[in-house]
Amino acid sequence: MSVSSRIFKAAALFSAAAIAIVSSGCSGDPVKQEIVTSITDQVQFSYETAKAQYMTIQEEAKIPASLDYAQSEAYYAPIDAKVKTNNISKNMKVKKGDILIALDTTDLDFQINDKEMKVAAMADGVDKGYAQIELDKLKEQRAAAVVTAPYDGVIAECCYSAVGSDVKSGTLLCRVAVLESIFVYNSQGAGKNLRFGMDVDLVINDVDYKGTVTAAPDTAPSDASNDATKYCAVTLSDDSLKKLINDNNGITAVDAGWATIHAITAKRVNVLAVPEKAIKKDGTKTYCSVLQGNEKYDLYVEVGATAGGYVEILSGLNEGDVVVLAESTGNGSSNTDNNNNNNKEDDNEDGDDDRKPWDSNKKPFKDM
To answer: 4 Cβ partners below 8 Å, 6+ apart?
Structure first.
C-alpha cells in the first residue's frame, strides 16, 4: 500500500491498554517519547522526536589554508660568484635602502673595464652598438649583485650561504615582503563555496581573526586555467592585521604557514525548520511523521534550504509540531527513514480510510 494511505496509530494496536507518554529534554532538541502499554508482556514504542520551530539555520565550511605576503620582491644571483656580504636572516625586519646581501664582482669588474675600453676605441656603427649592449648587460649584472631593501619590510626568504661560499647564477638570494600585505589562501579547490566579497572568520595559530574574500573561483575568468579556478584568497581586516602583526606575531604566523578559513556558505534566518532526520521520501514527495497525543500521522511537507543538519519547512507543518526522527519497539527493533519508505499494510483491516483531521487546516497526507 502506498505511503499516502498509511496511518500509524499506537492506540489501535492495543485498544484495551492504558497508554502514557513520557518526554524529556528542551523543546529545541530531539527528545525521547515512550508509549507504554500495560499488558502482561509489556510492549514499548519509543520515539526520538523534535519540535518544528523557527530558527536560523546555517552551513559552515572549514577550509585549510596557507599564509603568505601579497606584496614582495625576489632577488636572484645574476652571475656565478662568491658571497661577499650577507646581513640577513629569515623573518628579520629591514629598512628601505639597507644592504641585504652582496656578491663578489671582481671578475665582473674586470670584464666591464675591458669592454669599456674596447667600446671607446670602436668606430661608430653596428658593431659598436652591439658591444654597447653587452657592456650595459654586464653593468646590470654588477648592480644586481648588491641587493638593497626596496622598502621597509621583512625577509620572507633568504639565501643561507655564508660569506665566501659560492652561489650559482639564478640562486634565490632573498625575498623582501611588505609585512602589512599578509593574506590567506588555498590553491587546492577547497574554497569552491567561497564567493568574492564574503566576510569570513580566520583561525591562525589558534587565534581568531576577521577577513574578506578577495579572490574566489566565481571571479576566475571563463578561460582561466584549472589551477586558477581552484584558487581563493582572503585579506585580513585592518584591525585583524594589526593584531596579527603586533609583537612580531605576523612574521611567525606566516613562517608557520597555516590557517583555517571559517565561512558561512549557506544561511537562512528565522525559518521554520526540523532536523534532517525528520524528512522522509515517498517517490517525488516529501513527508514527516508527526505525533499528536498517542497517534502518529504522516504529513506531506514542502521543504526549502538544508543547512547545518536542519531542513527549512515551507508548508505542511506548524511551529511546535512534534516530528518523529526515529522509532523503536520494546523488542529492540527500530524503524529508520528507509524502513518508513517501504510499503506497509494499513492498520485498518476493513480498508476504510479513517484518517482524522490534524486540525482545521491540516490532514494526514494533505496534498500540496
So the answer is: 282, 365
